[in-house]
Predict the structure of MarR family transcriptional regulator.
Amino acid sequence: MSTTLVERAAIIRGFNRFYTHQIGVLQEHLLQSDFSLTEIRVMYELASRGDLTSADLCQMLGLDAGYLSRLISGFEKKGLVQKVRSVTDARAVQLHLSDVGRAVLAPLENQTQQEVIALLKALPEPQQQQLTAAMQRIQTLLQGRTPSYLLRDPQPGDMGLVVQQQSALYAREYNWNWEFEALVSEIVAKYLREFDPASERCWIAEKDGEVVGSVFVVRHDETTAKLRMLYVDASARGMGIGQRLVDECLRFARNAGYKSMLLWTVDALTDARRLYQKAGFNLVDEEATVSFGKSLVSETWAREL
């Protein structure tokens, strides 16, 4: 084994020791209750997923069958779990979390939630976002798959989120001032007031029930569409959402009968510029400017459809 792998393993083990201590899982009974971490996890899976067989739980949680059998026997004696016949296979026995079990689990779940919230409150907002994004990235890498997302039409309340999220993102990552928030507010307000579904469209990117990106296509003139306000939250980058949003804009513009598409950006947005270039846009105009409290180069990109 190479020294590099040994060092990396030591880093991971060190993080595991730190984090298990941080969230208190080394205690014999979690959350000062009568239950271990594994026992609470089994109750949680039965509560959230519904009735499961012992084999299901062993596979999901990587538990030894003999250990799980003893754990379930203890639950049955306490009235926390009942064994029921499967509604789809009368030969299969499933585990059902009883009302008593749910009553036991509910305050433990609430306490866990409050402890994690307290941990987050000790950090400023940017660090909270960095922490959760890092945890999502760890989960993605170890699962070996890309988490799913969906693109959908905007719903009531989404436009306020778009303004808030974009304003916060560019203030956090580029230190832009209130002028940018004023700009995105004006763009969104104009879109809502003058929306024409035949020639304009907005997509919202959603992951795990949260808005993580958006983009707009609006009418520039009779033959030209304009791509506006593309953004992807830091927690969802690397999933191809930005490229997908750009592709949807191009597809819609072609189907709407536009002959070309243009967009405005600035030189500081290097990731977005790479996306535009990959999608076939060309830089057609640039000008030095002072915007959003920064010295920037204003750029116009365009392509034929």
User: Anything to note?
Assistant: The radius of gyration is 26 Å.
